Amino acid sequence: MKTEKVGDASFETWTVDEVAQAFDRNEIVLIDVRTPQEYMFEHIEGAMLMPLAFFRGDKLPDQVEKRIVFHCGSGVRSERVARAAIAAGVRHIAHLDGGFAAWKEAKKSYIGTNMATGAPQAVTPE
Hints:
With about 130 residues, this protein is α/β, with parallel strands linked by helices. It has one domain: 3-Layer(aba) Sandwich (Oxidized Rhodanese, domain 1), CATH 3.40.250. Helix content is about 25%, strand content about 30%. The chain is built from 4 helices and 8 strands. A 6-stranded mixed beta sheet has the order 1-2-6-5-3-4. The protein has a two-stranded antiparallel sheet with strand order 7-8. A hairpin with a 6-residue loop joins β7 and β8. The two termini are about 25 Å apart.
């Protein structure tokens, strides 16, 4: 994990493996900042949706028990949201380096769409 100090705040960039391990141990809340359409097509199972267009850093819960980690498609929007959270007063925030594309490249499981039926399905890359 890379850590950057922004004033008195800490901005972290986590790797796919760091996010996956912490998420499996229930140590983080993973927030997807992509559009609802992107999320419905494919997403990390258990990730919450808070689209960039509707983001309100002042409405985030505290991080006493679990750290918040944002992710998007490539890492650009999640970095933007993380920095907006810092501007809203959040002191510790993180995002997934490379976003969902890096997650899929690392062959991590996710929920996708069955193109024949349109139904959601678990995808476990091999």
